[in-house]
Amino acid sequence: MHYTPSVIAKYSKTSDRCWRNCGIVGDFTHIFWDCQKIMEFWSCVKAELRRTLGVDLLINMAMPLVFKLNLE
Q1: Strands (DSSP E) found in the chain
Q2: Which of 3, 12, 17, 42 has the fewest C-beta atoms under 10 angstroms from its C-beta?
Q3: How many structural domains comprise the chain?
Q4: Dihedral sign, CA of 3, 60, 19, 50?
Q5: Could you please report the per-residue DSSP string of 5-52?
Q6: Which domain holds residue 67?
Q7: Local structure of 28: helix, strand or coil
Q8: Is residue 9 scored above 60 in pLDDT?
């Protein structure tokens, strides 16, 4: 299980802000998808998938939950 800054802040005297220092509340969606720095990471992943597999994927929050790749 992964605890985001917003969850940790509920139980301790720590900041609920993103640990990448962007100033936004670090909830699950922000930490893994919406933070500008993580968006750069996902752009690199997408580019590498395009280069390696030859497919252009739409990367969004649902992918890890319902990922199905059809290469036909």
Answers
A1: none
A2: 12
A3: 1
A4: positive
A5: HHHHHHHSSS--B-TTSS-SB--HHIIIIISHHHHHHHHHHHHHHHHH
A6: 1-71
A7: helix
A8: yes
Q: Calculate the CA 46 to chain-centre distance.
A: 13
Q: What is the pLDDT of residue 1?
A: 66
Instruction: Quote the pTM value.
Output: 0.67
pLDDT for the residue 34: 87
Contact 49, 55 (CB under 8 A): yes
Q: Are 16 and 6 in contact, with CB atoms under 8 Å apart?
A: yes
Alpha carbons 66 and 18: distance in angstroms, whole number: 26
User: pLDDT tens, 34-70?
Assistant: 899 999 998 998 899 899 999 887 777 666 655 555 5
User: What's the gap between Cα 33 and its chain centre?
Assistant: 3
Cβ-based burial of 13 (10 A; exposed 0-12, middle 13-18, buried ≥19): exposed
